[in-house]
Amino acid sequence: MSCSRTVFTAIPGCFFVFLLAVLAFFSCNNTPPPAASSKMQIQEPDFSVISIKIMQAELVNTRLKIKLRIENPNPFPVSLSSFNYELYGEGRFWAGGTEKNIFTVPASDFAEKDLFLVMNFIDMKRDLLDKVIAMEYVAYRFAGTVEINAVEMPLLTKRFNLEGESEVIR
């Protein structure tokens, strides 16, 4: 069949040849799918203790507020979905806890979170109690695990262990 025939008889034949050419062109796209290793992964946020504050001092228990700062190095927001922690002062266990669905840290930014703990002085050494009452600097260790997630990315579980000194403030 020639494409030079009359319009009525040539259209079906020429259309068929054109359709085959288009299908052949698009079926030759050999671009491989992106490699799995090129997917973005969550970079671990940085945690730091800003302050330890006495909220209320009682005979046996003292209520503390720990101000925690989380810096997100990722170009997308991340959510802290689970947070398990223990606080040690001068090498002794003070308090611990678990929080769920804490908050979201904006992309390439930071957020601060207040954690409220109850510390029992029954088993504490007297020198530690005196430091806290005098609002001196106390050596601390803040340790635990956190689950971090972002949209369409696998959950990241991170262990943290922060050590330093903090002034005890009211």
Fold blueprint:
Elements: H1 7-27, E1 46-57, E2 61-71, E3 78-89, E4 92-105, E5 110-120, H2 126-133, E6 137-149, E7 156-169
Parallel strand pairs: 1-7
Antiparallel strand pairs: 1-2, 2-5, 3-4, 3-6, 6-7
Architecture overview:
- The chain has a seven-stranded mixed β-sheet.
- A hairpin with a 6-residue loop joins strand 6 and strand 7.
- The N and C termini lie far apart (95 Å).
- The chain is 17% helix and 51% strand.
- It is elongated, with a radius of gyration of 31 Å.
- The longest helix is centred in the N-terminal third of the chain and has 21 residues.
- The chain contains two helices and seven strands, in the order H-E-E-E-E-E-H-E-E.
- It has one domain: Immunoglobulin-like (Sandwich).
- With 170 residues, the chain is α+β, with helices and mostly antiparallel strands.
- About 4% of the residues have low confidence.
List how many beta strands DSSP finds. Answer: 7
User: Largest beta sheet, briefly?
Assistant: 7 strands, mixed
- Cross-sheet strand order for the largest sheet: 4-3-6-7-1-2-5
Strand content: over 45%
Q: Helix/strand-derived class?
A: alpha+beta
Distance between the termini: 95 Å
Task: Return the CATH architecture.
Answer: Sandwich
Number of helices: 2
Q: SSE order, as H and E? A: HEEEEEHEE
Q: Name the shape in a single word.
A: elongated
What portion of residues is helical?
A: 10-25%
How would you name the CATH homologous superfamily?
A: Immunoglobulins
The CATH topology label is Immunoglobulin-like
Into how many domains do the coordinates divide? 1
Stretches where pLDDT falls below 50 for ≥5 residues? 33-38
> For the residues shown, what is the average pLDDT?
80
Radius of gyration: 31 Å
The CATH C-level name is Mainly Beta
